[in-house]
Design goal:
It is a multi-pass membrane protein. The protein is mainly α and 512 residues long. The protein is built from 22 helices and no strands.
Length: 512
């Protein structure tokens, strides 16, 4: 009995019978490989920034946009890409997006100036948006029932693997070759995906006849300005003209977007979908997860290296209790769904994450490493539970012809959560650390948050280092509590708003 269950869990999902007979394994491999490739481009390049900055004689601000340009474009173009997939065809957009992503990676990896790298990263983010939205819509079209749950479990595991292994793989590439390899590896992966994608099944929304250009422009500008505001807030100041102007512009274009969508015959996003509480809760669910996950991946390594005294390799290893469950658990989504309902898994993930984050307030990377590892493992379990089911749920609660649109909105909020989470947590960590230290210690707070304790030690000795570390630990305590509140709010929203009958009816309709 147990052997049969394991075999069914690990075997490739079976596709919906179709006249064209697409190979389900080929579909799954192509989309899973793309799902690994995209998040590596989110978390990986940070490892190469120091080498890149020195080689290209770039300023700290322009080098930081290597990360920000990708994240802003990835966020802003997600919904537009979903609508384009419904209109022009999901396979066509998947292949086009992969080609754009690979070519932009080639430019970034060979660029002679940091400005060209930044521009290539922006284009790379646009290609990534097309790949992610069309890829998840293709999975929804190809698989159904329990097979779909397993396919999306593998999809979620692939995203988790890419997020988790991005810094580690990039570190190896920089050490063995150079910073160029971090980008050039995506050229190879993109070429493999394009070969596999030649026989993917095509699907589109038969009722879609044109692109909602006013909707695309207003929404894309709104998301771009919103992401820009959160990215620039920590460095320019939350009350600065750039930050406030970005937020004001985002609000204006978002209001214009709503007006446009209510008036056009074929809107980019059908606002009537927001009348479904289940859909609203599910598309917001990833924010409660990735808001914390992305921020922990970015800011814990400097914390371990500085306050914890770990080397770069050790700091990556210390993240394994957090990252491994995110890769492993989605592989067993089929079994988990049979044991617990989709609604329970969606709510349980952020709830477990919230508990883990609160437990982390009692730990530090020096005196309580065992407790820290246990809390990180629990956080990884919560994130992994959610990653296995949330993509499938997002495209399952809407009609099949709207799957690209639903995927676009879901992934827009997922990537926006990552971008905004990283920006907000960076600002909160720095602000709360500064408040704990004496007035005028802003430079010291900057150094300790980024793990540069050597500068602190040189200016004041071990006593100053101890005080700086205590301030940083206070800052992390504030961050853990805030992230726990965000996760808990997501769990409550899912549990109270998601209706099991909506998910059940969707599954029945898909199987039929």
């Amino acid at each position: 009995m147990s052997q049969s269950l394991a075999d069914s869990e690990l075997s490739p999902p079976r596709a919906v019978p179709a006249e064209t007979g697409p190979n389900p394994t080929r579909v799954l491999v192509a989309i899973a490989l793309a799902a690994v490739m995209l998040p590596i481009s989110v978390t990986g390049p940070g490892v190469a920034l120091a080498d890149m900055s020195g080689a290209l004689n770039a300023s700290a601000a322009s080098t930081q946009w290597v990360l920000n340009a990708y994240n802003v474009a990835f966020t802003a173009f997600m919904l537009a890409a979903g609508s384009a997939a419904d209109l022009f065809g999901r396979r066509r957009l998947f292949r086009s997006g992969t080609a754009v992503f690979a070519l932009a990676s080639l430019v970034a990896g060979t660029a002679p100036t940091i400005l060209l790298v930044d521009l290539a990263r922006f284009v790379q983010g646009m290609g990534a948006a097309a790949v992610l939205t069309s890829g998840s819509a293709l999975l929804a079209h190809t698989f159904s029932g329990a097979a779909r749950a397993r396919a999306f479990g593998i999809f979620g595991a692939s995203i988790g693997f890419g997020l988790a292994m991005g810094p580690f793989v990039s570190g190896l590439l920089v050490g063995v070759a150079s910073w160029h390899a971090v980008f050039l590896v995506n050229v190879v992966l993109g070429a493999v995906v394009l070969v596999l994608a030649r026989t993917l099944p095509e699907s589109k929304n038969p009722g879609a006849r044109r692109i909602d250009l006013p909707g695309v422009l207003t929404f894309t500008l709104a998301l771009m300005l919103l992401a820009l505001g959160f990215v620039e807030g920590p460095s320019q100041g939350w009350g600065g003209i750039v930050t406030l102007g970005s937020f004001a512009g985002a609000a204006l274009f978002l209001a214009l977007f709503v007006v446009v969508e209510l008036r056009v015959a074929e809107p980019m996003f059908d606002l009537s979908l927001l009348r479904r509480p289940t859909f609203v809760a599910i598309i917001w669910q990833p924010v409660s997860i990735v808001f914390a996950f992305a921020a922990l991946l970015v800011y814990l390594p400097p914390y371990f290296q500085g306050a914890g005294g770990a080397g770069s390799t050790m700091s990556g290893a210390m993240l394994l209790p957090l990252t491994l469950p995110v890769f492993v658990l989605p592989l067993f989504t089929g079994t988990l769904v049979r044991l617990l309902s989709v609604r329970m898994l969606l709510a349980l993930g952020p709830a477990v994450l919230a508990v883990a984050l609160l437990l982390m307030t009692f730990t530090d990377p020096v005196s309580s490493r065992t407790g820290l590892y246990a809390a990180l493992l629990l956080a990884g379990v919560g994130i992994g539970l959610a990653f296995g089911v949330m993509d499938n749920a997002a495209v399952s609660v809407v009609p099949a012809e709207r799957s690209g649109m639903a995927s676009g909105m879901f992934n827009t909020l997922r990537v926006a959560g990552e971008t905004i989470g990283v920006a907000c947590v960076g600002g909160l960590l720095l602000t709360s650390t500064r408040q704990q230290l004496s007035a005028g210690d802003g430079a010291m707070a900057d150094d300790v948050v980024q793990g540069r304790l050597g500068s602190v030690r040189a200016s004041g000795g071990e006593d100053l280092v101890d005080r700086a570390v205590q301030g940083l630990q206070h800052g992390w305590g504030v961050v853990y509590v805030v992230l726990a509140c965000v996760a808990l709010a997501g769990a409550i929203a899912i549990f109270t708003m998601v209706r099991d009958r909506d998910l059940d009816q969707s599954s029945t309709a898909q199987e039929g």
